[in-house]
Amino acid sequence: MKRLRLWLGLGLAMFVLGGAGFGWWFYDLRWRPHDIARDPAEIARILEGAGWVSPGLTGPKLYMVGFRSCPDCIRFKAEAFPALHAAGVDTRVIEVARRDVNGLARSTPAERATVAELWANRRWALMEAWDKVPPEAWTAPGIAPADGDAGRTAIVEAGRTMVDQLTPLLAKNGVRFAYPTLIWWTREGKMRGCACEKRQSYRSVLKELGAE
């Protein structure tokens, strides 16, 4: 009987510890960003060479890769950018126009035109204007079309190629590419990254960038 009670006690303790461990993972660990220790120089080179736009702040750099109609990208901009900008973080947004899949378009002519313009001329004010209009209502006023223009079409394709390059490099570091993907450097100079689709991931990003 004593042995049975001992085994029951051990089983209960293991159950409690297992539950606590699962809770820690579910509510905290799985949302934390990853160190980018493999190929950081190559990842930095790709990001620096992309057509990012930023408010020109002088604090830490945060790269965000997204596309205009991405709900999680829209939410991150709305909820996290104010605190990041108040902390001086230079939010470097890289907008892409995704490739078609199985003949189904995943971008619009206006989106492709605007992405090409952002990459070519890096106008933060243009991105802000774009963000203020519902994606489906945006007509890219005053912006040259990308479709039919070999140079601007090549710029749009460069964004897609950038995603192709980043995806396996980030995977080596435990980061599954998604939208938005965020990459930044801590105060100690360590490169960090996450596919920050959920609000639960914001806390770590803001904390590491001094924008809590």
Tally of separate domains: 1
Q: Looking at CATH, which topology would you report? A: Glutaredoxin
| CATH architecture call | 3-Layer(aba) Sandwich
Which sequence of SSEs, written as H and E, runs from N to C? Answer: HEHEHEHHHEEH
- Provide the spatial order of strands within the biggest beta sheet: 1-5-4-2-3
Low-confidence stretches: 16-30
The percentage of residues in β strands lies in 5-15%
Name the shape in a single word. globular
Rg, alpha carbons: 21 Å
Please provide the count of β strands.
Answer: 5
CATH class division: Alpha Beta
Defining key terms:
single chain; 212 residues; alpha+beta; Glutaredoxin; five-stranded mixed beta sheet; 5 strands; globular
Short account of what is shown:
By secondary structure, this protein is α+β, with helices and mostly antiparallel strands. It is 48% helix and 11% strand.
How would you summarize the topology of this molecule?
Layout: H1 2-27, E1 34-35, H2 40-48, E2 61-66, H3 71-86, E3 90-95, H4 109-121, H5 124-131, H6 150-171, E4 181-185, E5 191-195, H7 202-208
Parallel strand pairs: 2-3
Antiparallel strand pairs: 1-5, 2-4, 4-5
Question: How would you describe the overall organization of this protein?
Answer:
The protein is an alpha+beta fold. Helix content is 48%, strand content 11%. The protein has helices at residues 2-27, 40-48, 71-86, 109-121, 124-131, 150-171, 202-208; strands at 34-35, 61-66, 90-95, 181-185, 191-195. It has a 5-stranded mixed sheet. Helix 2 runs antiparallel to helix 6 (150-171) and helix 4 crosses helix 6 (150-171). It is globular. The relative contact order is 0.19. Residues 16-30 have low confidence and may be disordered.
